[in-house]
């Protein structure tokens, strides 16, 4: 996070400040609870599912000793849980969005159609694995979410968390070379901005042992090649298709392990579009 984030001019006098303990950036002041609820009711659309959900499921299954009970918080239409079910896991989803909850149920998944709260945590019982994929960046108080996840997990249980890898080095290059705005700042719904390292630090500081830090395709490379997808959906669609062809080709050639090693390696440089951290609940 080397960009001059502290100089960014944001609406309504808002600004980004660095968390003094874990180093991630957070929006100050936060929108009110009423503003957030209104936004999600009237404007928000579920974020895109990663092209390779099987890769995320692979991470958990490689670390787990055997299939168990898995919870996906913000499960959307149930793509991840469907894959887990195919591998013998017992699946439960939490999804407050009615439309997405119905789609998940259509896949045969048990879905709780309400937000995660302390009261719901008590009703859900214990899990061997919990997923939190593209949720933590939206939450006003992310430490409360990790506390609840820790309560949900059995001792040694697995936690997989994914958020955008924001303010990363390739974004900085794209802004410098092309004069782009910081397009990844998404208000009012993105309240927290993590890097791979600050996400790992945040998770480790809340009762977890980090097992893996990784990422996925560094889509900002297209910007450096001159394919400006920012504010251009046509280029964005073409770019996404090419990225998918790359990952599909690697898997079709039985090079999925090499693909994972590639993403693990570039994650150490802070590069890659997503920050993906897998951890175990500390005993």
Short descriptors:
single chain; 283 residues; alpha/beta; Rossmann fold; seven-stranded mixed sheet; three-stranded antiparallel sheet; globular
What does this structure look like?
The protein has 283 residues and is α/β, with parallel strands linked by helices. It has one domain: Rossmann fold. The protein is 39% helix and 20% strand. A seven-stranded mixed beta sheet has the order 5-4-3-6-7-10-9, with helices on both faces. Strands 1-2-8 form a three-stranded antiparallel beta sheet, with no helix packed on it. Strand 6, helix 6 (142-152) and strand 7 (153-164) form a beta-alpha-beta unit. The longest helix has 20 residues, at 233-252. The two termini are 32 Å apart. The mean pLDDT is 92.
* CATH 2nd-level architecture: 3-Layer(aba) Sandwich
CATH superfamily: Vaccinia Virus protein VP39
Class of secondary structure makeup:
alpha/beta
Please give the alpha-carbon distance between the first and last residues: 32 Å
Radius of gyration: 18 Å
Tally of contiguous helical segments: 11
Which topology does CATH recognise? Rossmann fold
Q: Helix proportion of residues, in percent?
A: 25-40%
- The overall pLDDT average reads 92
Indicate the low-confidence ranges by residue numbers. none
């Amino acid at each position: 996070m080397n960009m001059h984030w502290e100089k960014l001019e944001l609406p309504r006098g808002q600004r980004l400040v660095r968390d003094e303990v874990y180093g991630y950036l957070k929006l100050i002041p936060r929108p009110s609870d009423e503003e957030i609820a209104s936004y999600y009711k009237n404007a928000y659309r579920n974020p895109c599912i990663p092209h390779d959900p099987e890769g995320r499921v692979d991470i958990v299954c490689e670390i787990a000793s055997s299939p168990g009970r898995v919870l996906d918080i913000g499960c959307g239409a149930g793509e991840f849980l469907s894959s887990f079910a195919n591998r013998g896991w017992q699946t439960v989803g939490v999804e407050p969005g009615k439309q997405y909850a119905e789609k998940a149920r259509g896949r045969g998944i048990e879905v709780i159609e309400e937000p995660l709260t302390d009261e719901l945590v008590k009703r859900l019982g214990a899990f061997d694995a919990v997923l939190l994929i593209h949720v933590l960046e939206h939450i006003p108080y992310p430490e409360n979410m990790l506390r609840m996840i820790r309560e949900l997990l059995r001792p040694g249980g697995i936690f997989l968390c994914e958020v955008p890898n924001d303010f990363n080095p390739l974004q900085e290059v794209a802004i410098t070379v092309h004069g782009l705005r910081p397009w990844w700042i998404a208000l009012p719904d993105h309240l927290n901005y993590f890097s791979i390292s600050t996400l790992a630090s945040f998770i480790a500081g809340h009762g977890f042992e980090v097992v893996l830090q990784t990422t996925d395709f560094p889509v900002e490379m297209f910007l450096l090649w001159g394919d400006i997808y920012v504010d251009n959906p046509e280029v964005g669609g073409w770019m996404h298709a090419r990225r998918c062809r790359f990952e599909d080709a690697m898997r079709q050639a039985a090079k999925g392990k090499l693909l994972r090693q590639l993403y693990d390696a570039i994650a150490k440089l802070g590069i890659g579009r997503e920050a993906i951290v897998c951890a175990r609940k500390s005993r």
